[in-house]
Structure formats: C-alpha cells, structure tokens
Amino acid sequence: MHRAKPATESDLIALLAELGIAQAxxxxxxxFTVAESRALRGALPxxxxxxxxxxxxxxxxxxxxxxxxxxxxxxxxxxxxxxGRLSFGSAQRMMDVLGVTPGAVTPFALINRxxxxxxxxxxxxxxxxMLKCDPLNYHPLHNEATTAISPDGLLRFVRHCGIEPQILxxxxx
Length: 173
Description:
Elements: H1 9-18, E1 24-27, H2 34-40, E2 47-55, E3 61-67, H3 74-81, E4 87-88, H4 91-98, E5 122-127, E6 136-138, E7 145-149, H5 151-160, E8 166-168
Parallel strand pairs: 2-6, 3-5, 5-8
Antiparallel strand pairs: 1-7, 2-3, 2-4, 6-7
C-alpha cells in the first residue's frame, strides 16, 4: 500500500485547531508501557488510556481505546464488535494501517488515514467509561508527549477521520 509520509505532531495540532478542538500537550521522556506512564505522569489530570491495535483472521483491523486500568477480553471484544478471533497486529501492519510504531498507538493516528487513498478497513471501539473522563490523554503520534482533549473533541476528531466509533461498556462485554 502506498502511503504519504505519516503526519507529525504539528500536523495533528493544526488539524485539532482547524476543527476547533482545544488541546494541551505535555512533554516527557519516551513511554512504552502503562506502568512507565503511571510512574512519570505526576499530577496530569484526566483519563489515562491505552490503545490496542488488533486484527482478526480476515485481516480486518480494530483500534480499541480504553482506560489504562481496564481489562480488554479479546474474545468478548470480538463477539461484541462482530470481528473474528482477535490478536495483536504486528508493528509493520500498525505502521501500514495507522502510521505509528509500537508505544505510540493513539486514536490520533487516524489522521494518517486522511492522506491514504484506500485505507484498509478499520473499526474503532471506545470505552464508554473512558468517555466520562475529561480530559482524555493520548500520545500525539509519538511517545514523548501526551496530548489532552475533551471526550467531545475525541469523538469529533474520530468522525472527521471518516470513522463512526463503536462505544462499548467494557464491564458488560
């Protein structure tokens, strides 16, 4: 698949501004895990999230965005979304589909789908409990910063990128 160069943090911030979505970005050393994030974030307010890049055997892709302490049962998630058996997507597929590397998976990576002529099918699942937090914190296309936005801002951004997210209560799946 041919892809334009992945978007940068500056591209993301410009798009958020164009969409009227307020944001605040905080710099920090590279973070690769939830545990590292907890140790370094200090008093950064809001919902802290993890993003799972998944695929099924039909090579359909799913981005699940949940609060960092939530358990994501992949079998139940597959059943709730209509996907087949889910597993984690490879680093190469992540780059092909989202334009980011492991450790930097974020819903903001959907910006890269805007510049792709025929992006592969991708479902997006958002944790209903996460959407009750304000602000929400995600990496801005790399793992050396955290960008906070409102839940409404997240939904507007995802929809602007051409995806209607599925909102699930992870306690009920």
